[in-house]
Design a protein that fits this description.
The protein folds into three domains: 167 residues, Sandwich (Jelly Rolls), CATH 2.60.120; 71 residues, no CATH class; 79 residues, Jelly Rolls. Helices cover 23% and strands 28% of the residues. The protein has ten helices and 18 strands. The protein is globular and about 70 Å long. The mean pLDDT is 96.
Length: 375
């Protein structure tokens, strides 16, 4: 059986007032619209066409959460734990109320994520830049006391990125943070022009936030439509702007490191953070064929993009499957061979009796389901 899903946008402050409305071809609501959740997460289960919610159908057992995400302002710089770290943290915080603002762990699961751009440009910060590259960027900032202090920390021995981030977020480095942000405002660099522009824009929205300087140490990533990045456990990241399809493990565990008024636990963040520097690979759409798969390192979820040109495409429904319409005029049919429209911004859930789905029309859809075993 196929069940139509919808949900109301969540009005987080960083959300875009226009991107989701433009995708769906409707008038903006006037409020920020940040995320639309298609899943059975207890925080906001999707609405089913019969008036129930998806958790009543699944029993809350979906291993993933699928979202539309629309950012006008940067999200918090954050990192997610491994399963082992989440279980340990969940046990340590057993005495805290579920809504305690100082709670770091909302469940005992990891939260790897995949984001695929729907807008023509999607900006993100992902992973820590190699130290030698960041030192070249810092050369463009001059020689104020704060810039010099950061340069010296990154030029030391050992895990210099962990040391620098701990210092920046310690609360004792605010004078140096302010000097570094001031230096960024007027810095120029041919090599790092895009990075400096991005950090300047982040600083304008988050004046005086130490996370601005942490962002200076991160890779700035620009995705084009159909491109994606996978964000594994321990990887520092933040979405900056744009519209995308996001899928993640069914968890709400977030350790924050800046650009937010929410709780920041620096020691816990550092205990989870992987400071190994390097780039985050961009996953690109297929050069040929209708279906693009985005390989990930986890079994919680798998995501495919289907680009339809009028020729029907058959998809195996392996496990609980959600199909999300993201463009054009697409229809979907299951075992009953009755085609139903898949409106842009809406989704369909395939119950366990469905083994194959046929997508037809001209447009785009994303297919979410559990992943396969990682070898």
């Amino acid at each position: 059986m196929l069940l139509s899903l919808s949900n109301a946008p969540r009005d987080y402050a960083w959300g875009s007032p226009t991107l989701l409305a433009a995708l769906e071809g409707r008038e903006p609501s006037g409020a920020p619209e940040a995320e639309v959740w298609f899943g059975d997460h207890p925080g906001d289960p999707a609405d089913v066409e019969d008036g129930t919610t998806l958790d009543a159908v699944t029993g809350g057992t979906l291993p993933y959460l699928l979202k539309l995400l629309a950012a006008a302002d940067p999200l918090s710089i954050q990192v997610h734990p491994t399963v082992a770290q989440a279980r340990d943290g969940w046990a340590r915080e057993a005495g805290l109320a579920s809504d305690d603002p100082h709670r770091n762990y909302r469940d005992a699961n990891h939260k790897p994520e995949l984001i695929v751009a729907l807008s023509d440009r999607f900006e993100a910060l992902g992973g820590l830049r190699p130290v030698a590259d960041s030192l070249r960027l810092i050369e463009a900032l001059g020689s104020s006391r704060g810039v010099t202090a950061l340069r010296e920390r990154l030029s030391g021995e050992g895990d210099v990125l962990r040391d620098a981030i701990a210092w920046l977020l310690s609360g004792t480095a605010q004078p140096e943070v302010d000097e570094i942000i001031a230096a960024v405002s007027s810095a120029t660099s041919d090599e790092f022009a895009a990075e400096l522009d991005a950090v300047r824009a982040i600083a304008e929205r988050n004046p005086g936030d130490p996370g601005v300087v942490v962002a200076l140490l991160m890779n700035f990533i620009v995705l084009r439509r159909g491109e994606g990045i996978f964000l594994r456990a321990g990887l520092l990241h933040a979405y900056v702007s744009g519209l995308g399809v996001e899928i993640m493990a069914a968890s709400d565990n977030v350790l924050r490191g800046g650009l937010t008024p929410k709780h920041i636990d620096v020691p816990e963040l550092l205990s989870v953070l992987d400071t190994t520097p390097g780039t985050v690979p961009v996953l690109r759409p297929a050069d040929s064929g209708s279906v693009t798969s985005y390989p990930v390192e986890v079994t919680d979820f798998a995501l495919r993009r289907v680009a339809l040109d009028g020729t029907p495409v058959t998809i195996d429904a392996a496990g609980p499957t959600i199909v999300l319409g993201t463009g054009g005029d697409v229809s979907i049919e299951g075992a009953d061979a009755v085609a139903r429209a898949l409106p842009v911004g809406k989704a369909v859930f395939a119950t366990a009796d469905e083994t194959q789905l046929v997508l037809s029309g001209r447009g785009e859809a994303f297919v979410a389901q559990p992943g396969s075993v990682v070898e």
